Amino acid sequence: MLVVSGLEKTYPGKDGGFTAVSGMSFEVHEGEIFTLVGPSGAGKTTLLRCIAGLDAPTGGSVTFDGEVVSGPPRDFAVVFQDYARSLMPWMTVAKNVELPLMKKGIDAADRRERITRALQEVGLGDAAEKRPFQLSGGMQQRVAIARAIAYRPKVLIMDEPFASVDAQTRADLEDLLLRVQEETGTTVLFVTHDVDESVYLSNRVAIVSRSPSRVAEIVDIPLPYPRDQIDTKSQPGFAHLRGHVFGRIREMVRDANLTTT
Amino acid sequence: MTTVTAPPRTSKQMVWVTTHRRTLGRYILPTVFILGLIGLQELLTQNGALPATYFPPASEIAAALIQELSAPALGSALSSTLSTWLMAILLSVGLGTIVGVLLGLIVPLEAILRPIIEFLRPVPSVALIPLVVLTIGTGSQSALFLAVFAAFWQVLVPAIIGVRAAHPVALDTARSYSFSLWQRIRWIQLPSMLPYLATAVRLATSTSLILIVTAEIIIQMPGIGYEITMSRSVGNPARMYAYIALSGAAGILLNGLVRRLENKLFATHGLGGTA
Fold this sequence. Notes:
The complex is a heterodimer of chains A (about 260) and B (about 280). In chain A, strands 6-7-8-3-9-10 form a 6-stranded mixed beta sheet, sandwiched between helices. In chain A, strands 2-1-4-5 form a 4-stranded antiparallel beta sheet, with helices on one face. With about 260 residues, chain A is an alpha/beta fold. Helices cover about 40% and strands about 25% of the residues of chain A. Chain A folds into 2 domains: about 180 residues, Rossmann fold (3-Layer(aba) Sandwich), CATH 3.40.50.300; about 70 residues, no CATH class. The model of chain A has no long low-confidence stretch (mean pLDDT about 90). Chain B is an all-alpha fold. Chain B has a single domain, classed as MetI-like fold (Orthogonal Bundle). Helix content of chain B is about 80%, strand content about 0%. Chain B is built from 10 helices and no strands. Chain B is flat, with a radius of gyration of 25 Å. Classes of the chains: A alpha/beta (about 260), B mainly alpha (about 280). The interface between A and B is medium-sized, with 25 and 21 residues.
């Protein structure tokens, strides 16, 4: 279980600096898809970087299975929004997927097997010997996902991973994530500003307020899995939950605008 | 025949015309121009407009060059200049890259050393010749030292910048997958500095050649430079020009070689598609 408690992140500066995250607390259960959704500028990425151990929080703590996260844990894998920069352009797709495995001390035969499986999983079985720039944006993000799942993390952290691909590709990638998660049972911590995406993917959605951000509300999404882009989204339950989350976010944005202007 | 006005040419014809225009611009015109210049020089020296003692006719220089080709001096001069050059390139690129990676990664170290680097970097290597003669002597090591001293900075500074040019997301990826320091350098930072290094190597190629020939002329150590200054002092200007032409040719050759190597490297690393 991943526990975030009283997390605070303040960037130093004049007038006490800028507090991006303050008093943030929530728990992510094993095997669930937990999504943080909120308006842009809500410090979601900051929060995620603290959880992933890439940045040190200035207060509070992140613990995973009872251990405090103080650097990037071996059991976590992060998928970034900027897939083009996160893949190594000078290496083939297979080599990119292989890199983190070489660190884990896995023998060559096992590595090959994992690479092949992961690439097939994301529908890139034929692209192993290509280089990232020969692939479309959506395919590059698939490579990044393949790299993460070949690593077999306990927690998969995704920072707006589908924000820079087109709508059709985005829907495909969402379904890909759901399928992979169902097969592997990996815990997924997902960040997005897209309300539909958050409701569609998640077991639970945490609505994050504007900075200094905290959790405004955690919404259970009791829609049945496997989910479907058309069936799930046409259920009345989906529309209701989507409306609720959307309303809360709009409320927060309006309140923030009232207080600042 | 005359009815076709727009489009005037099919794309195939366009390609033909442009490629031929390019060949004309790239090879034929420069060749004609150079041949013209040589002819003009020949004419001016033959009719006495230019003093033949300083400016032997092109035909005489060519004859001297051809004569040199079978003489023993040429081979040994070329081999000592080029072997010193090769050593200089290997040393300056090797040292520059290693020190560059260190200084690029360890920011405080670079901050401490920066004033020294900025002081030494603009010192013309030629100014060190008296010092080098006193300390190292007049052997080929002196030329090597001068060439490495000049080329080292040209590699070091781009190497530092190149190491730091690695993209933050790539570095975050490395951290989140717990790459070791060596893995990070090997897989992310060295590849990201390659384009910077490529330019540096080309700069270092010509710089070290210049320094080596200069050292050979001034310290009088065996090599192309020595043959140039020797020919002058024995009153054989045609031979001197032949060796000057040779050193120019060596420069072109080495530059072309390095560029070829670079293209090969970039093709296999697929760096062309990163921009």
